[in-house]
Design a protein that fits this description.
This protein has helices at 15-24, 38-47, 57-61, 78-87, 102-115, 129-140, 165-181, 285-299, 307-325; strands at residues 4-9, 28-34, 52-54, 68-71, 91-95, 119-122, 146-156, 187-193, 203-209, 215-221, 223-235, 239-243, 251-262, 267-276, 331-332. It is of the alpha/beta class. It has two domains: 4-122, NAD(P)-binding Rossmann-like Domain (Rossmann fold, 3-Layer(aba) Sandwich); 126-284 and 313-344, 2-Layer Sandwich (Dihydrodipicolinate Reductase, domain 2). The strands form two sheets. The chain has a nine-stranded mixed β-sheet. The radius of gyration is 21 Å and the shape is globular. The relative contact order is 0.16.
C-alpha cells in the first residue's frame, strides 16, 4: 500500500495528538498542519520539524500531493472544511462529533459520496482495545441478553464556552453504546443544569431506550470531585465493567446474576461466580484509529466509524437537546428538528 500523505487542520488540544500518531503509524506521512495561531504552529514545528505549517488551510487543499486531511477544529467549522476538502479530492477524517446538526452531518456525508472519497469520524473509543473486547463478548452472547448500560464520564473541567457537556463528553458514551448494542434508540430523554455558565449545561443525565428493550444511561459532568470514566453492561448471563481510568484491568467480567425470582413463594436465588479480568492489548486507541483510517483509504473499506455512524451519534445528541429544552420530556430519536447550539463556535 502506498504511503498516505496527510495534512491536519487544527493544532489545538487534539491536533498534535493526530500528528504524533500519524507520524508513528505505518503507511502514513503527516506532511502539513494548518492553524490560525502562530504559537500553535511554532509548537508543531518544534516537535515535528519536517512538518510544513501554514495559517491558510486552502494551501493544503490545493496541494495535489496531499491525499487526506484530518479536521480537528471547532465543531461549527466541520461542514465547511469537510466540503472544501472533498471538493479538492481529499479523503477526510473529521473529529467528533461529525457536525453540530443533523443537517450539517448529512451534508458532509453527501459531499463524501459525490467525491467518492473516504469519510471517517473520530470516535476514538470504538477503537479502544478494551471497548472492542466488550463488544466481542456481547456479539458472542457471553453476557446474554443485554438489559442496560450505565456510564459515568465526569471530572472537574475542562469547561467549554461554545458547547455544553452533552456535546462535549456525550459523543464518547453514545458512540460506545451504539457500537456495543448495534442498534439505534427509539427514544431519548435528558435532564441537566447550568451552574457555572448561565446558558451552557455543565451536568447532563442522558437516557436512551432501544427496540431490544435495553436502556442506556450516561452521567456527564464537568463539575465533579474526581475523574470517572466507567461503563457497566448488565446482561442476563454476566455483567461487564469497563473502566478507562484504570491503567490495568480495564475490563472485568462478573459471573453474577439472578437465577430464580418468585414473589409468590418469596424465592430469591442469585448467582455470584468468578470475576475475571481479560488481557487487553496496551495499544493506544488513537493509533488503532489512525491505522484503520489509512487502511480504509488504501483499500476502499468502510470505516467502523463512518459518516453514518457519526450521524447516528449526532441524532442522539440532537434528541438530547430537544429533551433538555422540553424540560426533560422523552422525545423520539428520529424526529428531524435540529438544535444548532454547538455551531456557535
Amino acid at each position: 500500500m502506498k504511503t498516505l500523505r496527510v495534512a491536519v487542520i487544527g493544532a489545538g488540544y487534539w491536533g498534535p495528538n493526530l500528528v504524533r500518531n500519524l507520524n508513528e503509524a505505518p503507511g502514513a506521512d503527516p506532511v502539513a498542519v494548518a492553524d490560525l495561531s502562530d504559537e500553535r504552529l511554532e509548537t508543531i514545528h518544534k516537535r515535528f520539524p519536517a512538518v510544513r505549517t501554514t495559517k491558510d488551510h486552502r494551501e493544503l487543499f490545493a496541494d495535489p500531493s496531499i491525499d487526506a486531511v484530518c479536521i480537528a477544529t471547532p465543531v461549527g467549522t466541520h461542514r465547511r472544511l469537510a466540503e472544501e476538502a472533498f471538493a479538492a479530492g481529499k479523503h477526510v477524517f473529521v473529529e467528533k462529533p461529525i457536525a453540530g446538526s443533523i443537517e450539517d452531518s448529512e451534508a458532509i456525508i453527501r459531499a463524501s459520496e459525490r467525491a467518492r472519497k473516504t469519510l471517517m469520524v473520530g470516535h476514538t473509543f470504538v477503537y479502544n482495545p478494551a471497548v472492542v473486547n466488550v463488544r466481542e463478548r456481547i456479539v458472542r452472547g457471553d453476557l446474554g441478553k443485554i438489559y442496560y448500560v450505565d456510564s459515568q464520564r465526569v471530572n472537574l473541567g475542562l469547561h467549554q464556552f461554545d458547547i455544553n457537556v452533552l456535546w462535549d463528553l456525550g459523543p464518547h458514551d453514545v458512540s460506545i453504546t451504539l457500537y456495543w448494542l448495534d442498534e439505534e434508540p427509539e427514544w431519548v430523554q435528558s435532564v441537566g443544569a447550568c451552574y457555572t455558565q448561565s446558558d451552557i449545561e455543565d451536568v447532563v443525565f442522558l437516557t436512551m431506550g432501544f427496540p431490544s428493550g435495553a436502556v442506556a444511561h450516561a452521567h456527564l459532568s464537568w463539575l465533579a470531585p474526581s475523574k470517572l470514566r466507567s461503563m457497566v453492561v448488565i446482561g442476563s448471563h454476566r455483567m461487564a465493567v469497563y473502566d478507562d481510568v484504570q491503567s490495568i484491568e480495564k475490563v472485568k467480567i462478573y459471573d453474577h446474576g439472578v437465577t430464580e425470582l418468585s414473589s409468590e413463594e418469596l424465592r430469591r436465588s442469585y448467582r455470584s461466580g468468578d470475576i475475571r479480568s481479560p488481557h487487553i492489548a496496551g495499544t493506544e486507541a488513537l493509533q488503532m484509529e489512525m491505522r484503520h483510517f489509512i487502511e480504509c483509504v488504501n483499500t476502499g473499506a468502510r470505516p467502523r466509524s463512518d459518516g453514518e455512524a457519526g450521524l447516528r451519534v449526532v441524532r442522539v445528541l440532537d434528541a438530547g437537546m430537544r429533551s433538555l429544552r422540553a424540560g426533560g420530556a422523552r422525545v423520539a430519536y428520529r424526529q428531524e428538528a435540529t438544535v444548532r447550539e454547538p455551531a456557535r463556535a
